[in-house]
Design brief:
The chain has eleven helices and no strands. It is 68% helix and 0% strand. The chain is globular. It is mostly helical. The protein has a single domain, classed as Up-down Bundle (Butyryl-CoA Dehydrogenase, subunit A, domain 3), CATH 1.20.140.160. The two termini are 17 Å apart.
């Protein structure tokens, strides 16, 4: 028997198949854990559980153009931002468009990454506004497409492409500020691209 797609599992789940929900959530829980674990020290398990509960509660709102992975990471994005806002004790509310993880949370980078070029990349990501960091990670590492990201961010696809272009330039600028030499900068940029290409392909959603 061939493996059911995300779309088929979602339809079976909506029809009352509890095994389909277990299979669908289990299929993506590893990627979801890494999404949180790269950003926050010791909080990933709880945030994964909160995200999965959010997916369970909101499954009727999942639309075909977004798919389950797009919906799940949209929920994860909101869970992350709520968590950061809850631990933010400054007088002004947290603005994810301007605040960065380098200011907000201890870095787990040395624990999860050994290679210097990859540590430099992740540190550069942490110096971007949180919302920009999440956009780049969802595009490159979670391999979400334009329609999925446009739905998550509430943008048209043209506006999304423009935002992605600016985000990539901001990342390169941050990496340039951290690199000790032009060679290290080139190596880190190449590492980012090869790292993204080497990731396991997500399951088909159709």
């Amino acid at each position: 028997m061939s493996e059911r797609s995300d779309h088929e599992l979602l339809a079976a789940w909506a029809a009352g198949d509890s095994g389909a929900s277990t299979e669908l959530l289990g299929r993506h829980v590893g990627a979801l854990f890494r999404f949180f674990d790269r950003k926050l020290e010791g909080a990933a398990d709880d945030l994964v559980q909160e995200t999965l509960l959010g997916c369970l509660a909101g499954r009727d709102r999942i639309r075909g153009e977004v798919g389950f992975r797009g919906y799940m990471f949209g929920v994860a994005r909101n869970v992350l931002y709520d968590h950061l806002r809850a631990r933010h004790r400054a007088a002004e509310p947290l603005d994810v468009q301007s605040s960065c993880l380098a200011e907000l949370a201890p870095s787990p980078i040395e624990r999860v990454i050994q290679k210097r070029e990859q540590r430099l990349l992740l540190e550069a990501l942490r110096r971007l506004p949180v919302d920009t960091q999440v956009l780049l990670e969802l595009y490159h590492w979670q391999q979400l497409g334009g329609p999925e990201l446009a739905a998550i961010y509430g943008l048209g696809e043209r506006a999304l492409r423009s935002r992605l272009h600016r985000a990539k330039q901001s990342l390169q600028d941050a990496m340039q500020g951290l690199a000790e030499s032009p060679d290290e900068l080139r190596s880190s940029i190449a590492d980012f691209e090869s790292w993204a290409r080497a990731l396991p392909k997500p399951h088909a959603t159709g």
